[in-house]
Write a structure and sequence with these properties.
Elements: E1 14-19, E2 24-31, E3 34-42, H1 54-76, E4 85-91, H2 95-112, E5 116-120, H3 121-127, E6 143-148, E7 153-160, E8 163-169, H4 175-185, H5 193-200, H6 223-239, H7 243-246, H8 248-274, E9 278-282, H9 289-301, E10 305-307, H10 319-330
Parallel strand pairs: 1-4, 4-5, 6-9, 9-10
Antiparallel strand pairs: 1-2, 2-3, 6-7, 7-8
Helix pairs in contact: 1-2, 3-10, 4-5, 4-6, 4-8, 5-8, 8-9
This protein binds 5'-O-[(R)-(carboxyoxy)(hydroxy)phosphoryl]adenosine and zinc ion.
Length: about 350
């Protein structure tokens, strides 16, 4: 028998957010729009394989989900009976990983007799900007979101909480993959994005020149860059076997500079096309110091209003799932138990 919800007369709205789309198992509790706990269990197991292994990820989610949710509730100082609704990542992501979060969320919502809310992972990255303590000011609609992660690279016009319009996207690799694959070519462990960022701090961004891809309109392509880096390094290491080690900082800085320029060029085109100068970045790659610096510069040079999330809300987290859960809860956008996770889901 489902347990009866005890929060009927409780004015506080508590949302539990659960995220399990890739290799992080995360849970967060939001009280009346404020995050009161935000927990994540990372999976170190994938480092040795140079990328996320889907079977190992779903197994680790199964081990982590109960302790992570327990920890999030404990830190929030509430009991599961206090919850008003459960929000979980519906997709896109690794199916086996999504299934763990979805099954857990469904069982808990059924047991507690409270609403279930499916959340789009990339919309959640964008709407993380509406976590109140996240940014000093909230973006006004419409704004442009640059969603940059290990699986996505898009420029999206956000008209309101629930109306997203993709203006351009990658035709091949995501920008996070461009960072990770370049890092892998240089012998760095997965995920290499943060390491390239770290080594780039000491390097000269103009030391090596990698040509930018020519892609029409607001779409992106990153697979050519990876191949260019591979051929360049194969040629150099043939003559100087220690080339990579000796030039790691300059190589990292040059790769980061090229990627940031590609993103900034397209953003400028999107602003010219839409006339919208409010820019928000979202997704794991928005932790990158190069893109943050370029955007802050554009505030001065281009007159943009830039929104950069707090570091803990850039990579995968459950606080962003909980905030979307809250927005949907207020709008009574609930799902029934027939909802299934989806590996692919479009944003608009
Ligand atoms: O959003 P996210 O945590 O997971 C996905 O949904 O993909 O993004 C992960 C991606 C990885 O490719 C990782 O290398 C990249 O974000 N990343 C970075 C940085 N921090 C994370 N890339 C460049 N510089 C960083 N500082
Ligand atoms: Zn993500």
């Amino acid at each position: 028998m489902p347990e009866k919800s005890k929060n009927k007369n409780n004015k506080n709205i508590y949302i539990l957010g659960i995220e399990s789309s890739c290799d992080d198992t995360a849970a967060a509790v939001l009280k009346n729009g404020q995050i009161i706990s935000n927990k994540v269990a990372n999976q170190a197991i994938h480092e040795q394989y140079g990328g996320v292994v889907p079977e190992l990820a779903s197994r680790a989610h199964q081990q982590n989900i109960v302790p992570v949710v327990d920890l999030a509730l404990k830190e929030a100082g509430i009991d599961k009976q206090d919850l008003s609704a459960i929000a979980f990542t519906e997709g896109p992501g690794l199916l086996g990983s999504l299934l763990v979060g979805a099954s857990f969320a469904k069982s808990l919502s059924l047991a507690l007799g409270i609403p279930l809310i499916g959340v789009h992972h990339m919309k959640a990255h964008v709407l993380a900007h509406f976590i109140e303590e996240n940014t000093m000011k909230l973006p006004q609609f419409p704004f442009l979101a640059l969603t940059i992660s290990g699986g996505h690279t898009q420029i999206v016009q956000v008209n309101n909480y629930f109306d997203f319009n993709i203006l351009g996207e990658t035709l091949d690799d995501a920008v996070g993959e461009a960072f990770d694959k370049s890092a892998k070519i240089m012998g760095l462990p997965y995920p290499g994005g943060p390491l390239i960022d770290k080594y780039a701090q000491e390097g000269n961004p103009k030391a090596f020149k990698f040509t930018k891809p020519k892609v029409a309109g607001l779409n992106f392509s990153f697979s050519g860059l990876k191949t260019a880096i591979l051929y360049f390094l194969q040629k150099q290491t043939k003559e100087h076997p220690d080339f990579i080690q000796e030039n790691l900082a300059d190589l990292s800085a040059s790769i980061q500079y090229t990627i940031v320029n590609i993103l900034m060029d397209k953003l400028k085109m999107a602003v010219a096309q839409t006339g919208i100068k409010r820019i928000a970045i979202a997704g794991g790659v928005s932790a990158n110091s190069g893109i943050r610096k370029a955007l802050l510069e554009a505030q001065q040079t281009e007159g943009w209003e830039v929104f950069i999330p707090k570091f803990e809300y850039t990579t995968d987290n459950a606080a962003m799932i909980a905030i979307v859960g809250y927005l949907k809860f207020l709008d009574k956008r609930f799902n029934d138990l027939s909802i299934t996770p989806k590996a692919r889901m479009t944003l608009d």
